[in-house]
Automatic annotation (TrEMBL):
The protein's name: ABC transporter permease
Short name of one Pfam family: MacB_PCD
Listed InterPro entries: ABC3_permease_C (IPR003838), MacB_PCD (IPR025857), Macrolide_Exporter_MacB (IPR050250)
Membrane topology: Multi-pass membrane protein
Domain ABC3 transporter permease C-terminal residues, every copy: 273-394, 721-836
Leader sequence segment: none
Residue ranges constituting the MacB-like periplasmic core domain according to the UniProt record: 17-237, 494-657
Main location: membrane
Residues that span the membrane, as ranges: 16-36, 270-295, 318-342, 362-384, 413-433, 439-460, 495-514, 715-743, 764-796, 808-830
Length: 845
């Protein structure tokens, strides 16, 4: 039986090629995602290990998430630690975020994703003697008008040593133009993974980022030879005041890497979700392929039964074929996954996350996952056809027509209905309740609904297939009637092939509705709540210099400038955002108090959004505690509860002075400009203030709405691109099914040609059959997409997305594209059918 199985497999290499290709694509996505995420993790772990000392001294109670802070360590602490036993040297470091290098074309270098870092130059070695950023060209900065860049930043900006450079900061000096005097690099290889770094001498860095205080943001202590980090940490800790702590460099690096990798872990999850979608769609292709192949081999398998093979041996032979196909597909998929990981790396480099200098990481789990996933999916998909074949009696299999018992259709209908009901309940639980791991519950429910619809589709699609047959007969005559009959002859196969396309289009339709509804909700919120005449903000959503608001307040035609600031803290172990305004601006920003009094809103108090107040059980007069800020715990009094306001981007609002007292910098995140009666040319005058600051833009209401919609468009476009892989597999499924169907109907094709059907008519018949499959899949997918999209929009309506908008034009394009897909998918099978020799086709058994 094993020899017969292998010979059968080798004799049908081309027939299995496209089903193998489906596994290759799905496994490639799994492998590429894991390789990229492992490379990402390894690169950041290595980077942070080279950017900390043996022991790091930092504020004891502050949040360690790397956010902006004005909390500093007095320079006297460096002197106090100089003679610490086991310490070779002590170096103070100044670090700031939001220091953007502007190239010669007035465009920001980087800025998207990885941070723009500024600080002081230091030649201190990293922990364990690792070389950190080292001068590789030029010299160290001296004086207030000199700076050094890391090599990548210098290369991307186009500046050379000796040239004046443009740097935009979030400090009181928005624009500075020092001279580039040196280049920093990693002598043993490595990079900042897309981040930019500009280093000044220590006094200049203190002036820019610490308001001129003789202080540092952290201190590195380098260990003597033979002294461990733990030993040195203990000696350093004994000399520190209570408000400072000493941690080993390994712990500091691990903390920084863990926080960052947790923040970007969604990338791997995001990619693996689409790998799962591709594998599910590929499974439909494999089921169809093996179903047709097994049906075509029914006589061969029956003969083996007659010679003594058992049902178990027949089933096992099909599963062995699936095992071999899965192994080949997984191997090829792993290789393609390497290329895909390189492509993902190049893609993210365009968004600022530059890992091009990092070698790809192949973890054992990647290889194991690729083979486990590829083989299991293939064998699971082949099990149903194998099991079905084993139930066919040898005598029945020797006949020309093989019909499965009708009870199987009824059983599928029952199982499908149950799957739809259970899936809908799981989706409802994931969307509308607080079940643990709601995302997984939602995903499982969606899959059950899709599989349920697939199971019942042979029954529910009969009216559609009958109507198509009638329409084809009227429009295309006998050829159309034959095409309709072929689709109706085996509704199980027709709908299984259509279901692969259905899944892809259902998810595409869902995303189209979510994207369109989100943009419509943004438009409505801005139209109803936009205050002032212009909004000033950063293109990266980062803070900018407070001097901009000061200058704009002096522009002719400006009546009022309202500042907003945003701070990042920690609460219950999670990142937590706080907005800050001046109390006098609350009414202007449209903050409507539902409970409490606006007059009680002052330093040390907080206004809370009504939904957040309900979730947290807060009332006016309660205390509200934030666990970690730059200066540790912050306790605020609830002064009022306000109605939802889209102009305020967080659920809690405090005063600017409160944030400043807590160690947050005085940089602005957004400005609202209220114009006086003379608005002619005002936007141009405001734009002139930030003409040399490309990170800051001035927008009117329409432009502000466009800016808010842009990320939604980018996300939806990215998802469509990833779903394109599933759609490609679905199209391959149609091609494969039609090609195998032509082989299965070789005698029938020969008889039709013999009685006068021309090659052109034969090609038209197969094309019409393909269009039926594609349109059926598109209709089911669009209907499910509408249901999923509306359900999800209802689930998030309390998050400010209150408008449900159906993009009928886009959904119509999906349906029209399905006709094109059907025509294109039929090209190869139709051409093959047209080339069949008539006499040989008639003689085929």
């Amino acid at each position: 039986m094993l020899k017969a199985t292998i010979k059968s497999l080798l004799g049908r290499k081309l027939r299995l090629l496209m089903s193998t290709f489906a596994i290759v694509l799905g496994v490639a996505f799994v492998g590429g995602s894991l390789i990229f995420s492992d490379t990402l993790g390894r690169s950041f772990t290595a980077l942070f290990a080279s950017t900390v000392g043996d022991v790091v001294v930092r504020p004891a109670d502050g949040n360690t998430n790397g956010g902006p802070s004005t909390v500093a360590i007095p320079a006297s602490v460096v002197d106090d630690l100089e003679d610490t036993p086991g310490a070779a040297r002590v170096d103070g470091h100044v670090t700031a975020i939001g220091v953007y290098v502007v190239d010669k074309d007035n465009k920001v270098v980087g800025g998207q994703g990885p941070p723009a870092i500024g600080g002081n130059y230091s030649d201190a070695p990293a922990g364990h003697g690792l070389p950190g950023l080292t001068l590789v060209e030029g010299r160290a900065p001296e004086g207030p008008d000199e700076v050094v860049f890391d090599a990548k930043t210098a290369q991307r900006s186009g500046y050379f040593i000796g040239e004046k450079v443009h740097i935009v900061t979030a400090s009181d000096q928005a624009l500075i133009t020092p001279t580039l005097v040196g280049i920093l690099g990693f002598p043993e290889g490595g990079s900042l993974n897309g981040a930019t770094f500009a280093a000044f001498d220590t006094p200049r860095a203190q002036q820019l980022f610490l308001d001129g205080k003789d202080a540092y943001t952290d201190i590195w202590v380098t260990a003597d030879d033979g002294v461990s980090q733990d030993e040195l940490r203990g000696a350093v800790a004994e000399r520190l005041p209570a408000d400072l702590e000493a941690v080993t460099g390994d712990k500091a690096a691990d903390d920084a890497a863990t926080d960052l990798l947790e923040a970007i872990s969604f990338l791997r999850t995001f990619l693996l979700i689409f790998a799962a979608i591709s594998l599910v769609v590929g499974a439909f292709l494999i089921v169809n392929t093996f179903s047709i192949l097994v049906a075509q081999r029914s006589r061969e398998l029956a003969l083996l039964r007659a010679l003594g093979a058992s049902k178990r041996q027949v089933t096992r032979s099909v599963l062995v074929e699936a095992l071999l196909v899965g192994l080949v597909g997984s191997t090829l998929g792993l290789g393609l996954g390497v290329l895909l990981a390189m492509g993902i790396r190049a893609l993210f480099a365009n968004f600022g996350l530059d890992l091009t200098g990092q070698p790809l990481v192949f973890g054992p789990r990647t290889i194991l996952a690729c083979y486990v996933v590829g083989v299991l999916v293939t064998m699971a998909a082949a099990w149903l056809p194998a099991r079905r074949t084993a139930r066919i009696a040898p005598v029945q299999a020797l006949r020309d027509d093989i019909a499965l018992p009708e009870t199987s259709i009824h059983r599928r209908l029952l199982l499908g209905v149950v799957g739809i009901l259970v899936g809908a309940a799981a989706m409802a639980a994931g969307l509308f309740t607080d079940v643990p791991r709601g995302g997984y519950v939602l995903g499982l429910g969606t899959l059950l609904v899709l599989l349920g619809v697939t199971a019942v589709s042979p029954v529910i699609s009969r009216p559609f297939l009958g109507a198509v047959q009638a329409a084809y007969r009227r429009v295309f005559g006998t050829v159309g009637n034959l095409a309709g009959q072929n689709a109706l002859r085996n509704p199980r196969r027709t709908t299984a092939t259509a279901s692969a396309l259905m899944i892809g289009l259902a998810l595409a339709g869902t995303m189209a509705i979510l994207g369109d509804s989100a943009k419509a909700s943004v438009d409505q919120a801005i139209e109803e709540n936009f205050v002032g005449d212009y909004v000033v903000s950063s293109v990266f959503g980062e803070p900018f210099s407070p001097s901009i608001a000061t200058e704009m307040a002096q522009v002719d035609g400006v009546d009022r400038v309202v500042r907003q600031r945003w701070a990042q803290a920690e609460r219950d172990g999670d990142f937590f955002g706080i907005a800050a305004i001046e109390p006098a601006d609350a009414e202007f920003l449209g903050i409507r108090i539902l409970d409490g009094k606006l007059s009680d809103f002052k330093d040390g108090s907080v206004l809370v959004d009504e939904k957040w107040a309900g979730d947290e059980g807060l009332e006016v007069g309660d205390t509200y505690t934030v666990d970690k800020t730059p200066k540790g715990r912050l306790t605020l009094t609830v002064a009022g509860i306000y109605a939802d306001n889209p102009v305020i981007f967080f659920d809690t609002v405090t005063t600017m002075q409160t944030l400043k007292d807590q160690g947050y910098p005085g940089s602005d995140n957004a400005l609202v400009i209220d114009a006086g009666p003379d608005t002619v040319g005002l936007k141009n005058r405001l734009g002139a203030v930030v003409a040399d600051l490309p990170i800051v833009t001035v927008k009117d209401q329409a432009e502000f709405a466009d800016e808010q919609r842009a990320p939604i468009d980018q996300l939806v476009l990215m998802i469509f691109a990833l779903l394109g892989l599933a759609l490609v597999i679905a199209v391959l499924g149609i091609v494969n099914t039609l090609a195998l169907s032509v082989i299965e109907r070789t005698r029938e094709v020969g008889l039709l040609r013999a009685i006068g059907l021309s090659r052109r008519q034969l090609r038209l018949m197969i094309t019409l059959e393909s269009v039926v499959i594609a349109v059926l899949g598109a209709l089911l997918g669009v209907v499910l997409g509408i249901c999923f999209g509306i359900a999800m929009m209802y689930a998030v309506r309390d998050e400010g997305l209150e408008v449900i908008s159906l993009p009928w034009g886009q959904l119509g394009v999906f349906l029209a594209a399905s006709v094109v897909v059907g025509v294109l998918a039929a090209v190869f099978p139709a051409r093959r059918a047209g080339r069949l020799d008539v006499l040989r086709a008639i003689a085929t058994e």
